Amino acid sequence: MQSSLTPFRVAVIGGGPAGLMAAQTLAQGGARVDVYDAMPSVGRKFLLAGRGGMNITHAEPYADFVTRYGKGSAPLRSMLDAFGPQDVRDWVHGLGVDTFVGTSGRVFPTDMKAAPLLRAWLHRLRESGVQFHMRHRWLGWRDDALVLDTPDGELLVQADAVVLALGGGSWARLGSDGAWVPLLAARGAAVTPLVPANCGFDVAWSEHFSSRNAGEPLTTVAIISTGADGKAFRKQGQFVVTQGGIEGSLIYALSAALRDQIAADGSTTIYLDLLPDLTAQRVADEVARPRGARSMASHLQSRLGIKGVKAGLLRECLSKDQYADEDQLARAIKHLPVRLLRPRPIDEAISSAGGVRWDALEGTMLKSAPGVFVAGEMVDWEAPTGGYLLTACLASGQAAGRDVLAWLARS
């Protein structure tokens, strides 16, 4: 962008990946950029996500990658075309951080850590003139000025344009608390209610079962359920039994469909295949083998390796008569019903769905508030774990920055 933009001042509210990428794009375009964040430091959720290994994007074919965003796939497409998975890797490399592709296709920094990447990025932003203002909580507008609560009292900020990148509604203690929803609604923006994404679910376990199995992983299982289109689907992986339900990677991957089914019907039932590598006939044959004086539990462990939490699930989900019936037991091992009551609260979710509706936007600018742009999880899209969420946040941040520059150039 031309140097004529230098006098323009842009306020970025929110110091997560979307806000920082918007700030980077704006600074590169010649705008003066101030980033405001309510927390003591930026990128707190970014750092938390990196504690178990910083998954930055995914290396699957791009044609598959862009389908992972549900109903948001179509409106996100142009943003991802401009800043997709390979662009994310190139950008990380440009910050002096190497990456590698894991066996699942997920992409990580070589050292698996988020902090060095964030430090390098913030150093680059400060070098480009971006100013950071911490412990500045945005409270809305007074006339055309932004109202910020600061350690020194209330501050009014005038800006030529604003990028809002305040996140969704998960992990409020890290800054994403959804407090912006009524503020935008008051400005006439249509907002879909925020709901949990990549979340666990409540199950009415008995005290006997939960006290013995909470925290135990279910490895190499498959879930059979029904999608939003009414079609059955099956996905294999692992998850964890909790004190009051289930959570983990396999559950997160299916959580959007499960959440929507519960919203429509009040609850939903999934079916577990406890031995997905064995055919139903093989399981039936092994269950029916003579067991002599051995108990059924010992028989299942000896013939099929069913023990621990898997054995406990069979006892939990089947009646005494069903467990004693070899045919019903064999069928249950391959198709065990588990009723899900509700998603876990949004503040426990990895991310959220809902947000500013796409039809309330012109590009990334609010139709009801010219000069106000939104990015990241504030917009109504969701993504599974695996680097998809971060990639789309970065892409939408860049798109918002570019839209601001174009809008300022026309002003």
TrEMBL record:
Alphabetized UniProt keyword annotations: FAD, Flavoprotein
KW Flavoprotein (keyword) present: yes
InterPro entries according to UniProt: BaiN-like, BaiN-like_dom_sf, FAD/NAD-bd_sf, Flavoprotein_PP4765, RsdA/BaiN/AoA(So)-like_dom, RsdA/BaiN/AoA(So)_Rossmann
Domain named RsdA/BaiN/AoA(So)-like Rossmann fold-like: residues: 9-402
Cofactor: FAD
Gene3D superfamilies hit by this protein: FAD/NAD(P)-binding domain (3.50.50.60), HI0933 insert domain-like (1.10.8.260), Translation factors (2.40.30.10)
Domain of life (superkingdom): Bacteria
Domain RsdA/BaiN/AoA(So)-like insert: 195-351
Transmembrane segments: none
NCBIfam families cross-referenced by the UniProt entry: aminoacetone oxidase family FAD-binding enzyme, flavo_PP4765
Name of the molecule in the record: TIGR03862 family flavoprotein
Provenance organism: Rugamonas aquatica
